[in-house]
């Protein structure tokens, strides 16, 4: 009995990977063995960096809040401690936005907690 290899499914798998490799440079976009490795690595980076992105944004928010608080003579840690003590339920994302785009509103928060 002849061997059955299901070339339709194999071709579909290869096409799927090559489609994911669209836009890659050189042979990474059109040679199956190279593209497969490149796509695997890209998926690893994507998974890892979805976590890293959250860390980076939190660090950015903290930096912006710190800069805004220091303009009013407070450090970041003292500012956040007072925010918690006064039960102000604003998260770092909102506080960073206020510090950067709405300095009057941020100043009002600082005056309230001083």
| Rg, Å, rounded | 26 Å
Which H/E pattern describes the elements? HHHHH
CATH architecture: Orthogonal Bundle
Low-confidence segments, given as residue ranges, are: none
CATH class: Mainly Alpha
Helices, by number, come to 5
Keywords:
mainly alpha; c-terminal domain of poly(a) binding protein
Question: Could you give the topology of this structure?
Answer:
Elements: H1 7-20, H2 32-71, H3 76-85, H4 92-101, H5 103-113
Helix pairs in contact: 1-2, 2-4, 4-5
Task: Quickly describe the structure.
With 114 residues, the protein is an all-alpha fold.
Description:
The chain is mainly α. The model has no long low-confidence stretch (mean pLDDT 96). It is rod-shaped, with a radius of gyration of 26 Å. It has 5 helices and no strands. α2 packs across α4 and α4 crosses α5. The chain has one domain (9-113): c-terminal domain of poly(a) binding protein. Helices cover 75% and strands 0% of the residues.
